[in-house]
Amino acid sequence: MELRIGIIGIGNIGSAHAGAIYNGQVKGAVLSALCDISEKRVRELEKTYKDVPIYKDYIKMLDSGLVNAVIIATPHYLHPEMAEAAIERGINTLTEKPVGVYTKGILPLCKKAEEKGVLFAIMLNQRTNKLFSVAKEIIEDGKIGKILSSHYEVTNWYRTEEYYQSANWRGSWRGEGGGVLINQAPHNLDLWCWLCGVPKRVKSVCREGAYHNIEVEDDAIIYAEYENGAKGTFITSTGIENGKNRLEIIGEKGKILLEGGRLTLSEGEAITTYLDEEYNGHLNILNNFASAIRKEAELISPAVCGLDSLRVSNGAYLSSWKGDWVDLPLNEDEFLSYLQRKIENGKQICLEGKDSDTCGTYLSRWGTSW
Ligand SMILES: NC(=O)c1ccc[n+]([C@@H]2O[C@H](COP(=O)([O-])OP(=O)(O)OC[C@H]3O[C@@H](n4cnc5c(N)ncnc54)[C@H](O)[C@@H]3O)[C@@H](O)[C@H]2O)c1
User: Fold this and answer.
1) Same structural domain for residues 137 and 194?
2) Exposed end of the chain (fewer CB within 10 Å): N or C?
3) Which residues contact 152 (CB under 8 A, 6 or more apart)?
4) What's the mean pLDDT in 318-322?
């Protein structure tokens, strides 16, 4: 089956996906249509992709009959409604992370995809990093025993002030629905949940505009408790220039440390070390999506997996706003009413009507950075 892929949102990441598919890097897939609402972007695309139909209205693209799979690479709030429109039409859908800004409505959407018999996946590219796959295997093989605690510090998501001004939707509650927890850290929150499970409750401090002139958080600390009594901490920030990426998981029989492109497994006196390998997580997920549609592989990251990290980040916001513990899965309506208030009271610092510059290739800052 030939996969005819359409992409909605041809900005930073959408242009990289477009280039990869157009250049034949996704087996059995062709770039069949592109869509962006920006006039400037459409003009640029017409020059680069002379033989690919370009739309300004994504519904028209979905209805064109040209695509049997779609990638959604627009600002976060739009992901669920665009996914729903594609799924309704029986079109296989791969959404960029996060799966949405809030959890309400996501599970029914995943169920709808099942009913329609289409795949609904999410771009959790860092799941294909070798060391995280090794960690998953070690835990599932019971080598470290029951997990007692985990500590994940990922403070190397440094972003400049210019980054937040590079598109009008960034850095505001109305445009983005959050900061580092909803934009950069979903990858790490996903890996944390994938390896250690989803916490049963969280308490957090999310500092809004701590380092940048933005209304959302650019610094967060989450304390988590799990059903089995385990504890965990998660620290992230976009304001630290020399931050780090360090995950330690301690079990009853051993422990795992991932840091500096190296995984160290300690089981009593025995120590085993694994080294990271170069990888392109985005291409891995795109190829897995295509293989799974051809029924040659299982999805690495079905969209329902995007709910785990979203539950934790939504829970962390609510906890920080209320100054209290939040049980997971959280009360979705309560979260939405708090979010609505943040949107209404937002300062709207971000510039209006500014398009970000596209790069057309995958940036190293989107991969696993040690
Ligand atoms: N997986 C990753 O590593 C990764 C990396 C970067 C971005 N992302 C995600 O991808 C999404 C986009 O991020 P970005 O940095 O590319 O943003 P961007 O601002 O560079 O691009 C977004 C594009 O969407 C277009 N758009 C907005 N509304 C639209 C609509 N209604 N119809 C069609 N097009 C529309 C904009 O004109 C813009 O060109 C975000 O959700 C982000 O979290 C993921």
Assistant:
1) yes
2) N
3) 188, 191, 192, 232, 233, 234, 235, 246, 247, 248
4) 98
pLDDT number for residue 363: 87
Q: Which residue has the tokens 């079905």?
A: 302
Q: Are residues 142 and 29 in the same domain?
A: no
What residue numbers bound the domain in which 337 lies?
A: 128-278+307-352
360 within some domain: no
338, with CB counted inside 10 A (0-12, 13-18, 19+), is: middle
How many whole angstroms separate alpha carbon 59 and alpha carbon 8?
10
Q: Is the pTM of this model over 0.85?
A: yes
- Ligand 1 atom closest to the CA of 170, numbered from 1: 19
Mean pLDDT of 2-27: 97
Residues 147 and 264 in one domain: yes
Is residue 222 helix, strand or coil?
strand
Q: How far is the CA of 263 from the centre of ligand 1 (A)?
A: 32
Q: Domain of 96: which CATH number? A: 3.40.50.720
Q: From 36, 154, 164, 187, give the residue whose CB has the most ligand 1 atoms within 8 Å, as the site to mutate.
A: 36
C-alpha 178 – ligand 1 centre gap (Å):
15
Q: What ligand 1 atom has the least distance to the C-alpha of 9? A: 24
What pLDDT score was predicted for residue 356? 62
The CATH number that applies at residue 209 is 3.30.360.10
Total domains in the chain come to 2
How far lies 100's CA from each of 9, 37, 177, 214, 216, in Å? 15, 20, 9, 20, 16
Contact 202/223 with Cβ under 8 angstroms?
Answer: yes
| Angstrom distance (rounded) from CA 321 to CA 171 | 17
Task: Based on the fold, state whether residues 82 and 107 are members of the same structural domain.
Answer: yes
- Ligand 1 environment, Cβ below 6 A: 8-14, 35-38, 41, 58, 73-76, 78, 96-97, 123, 125, 167, 183, 356, 366
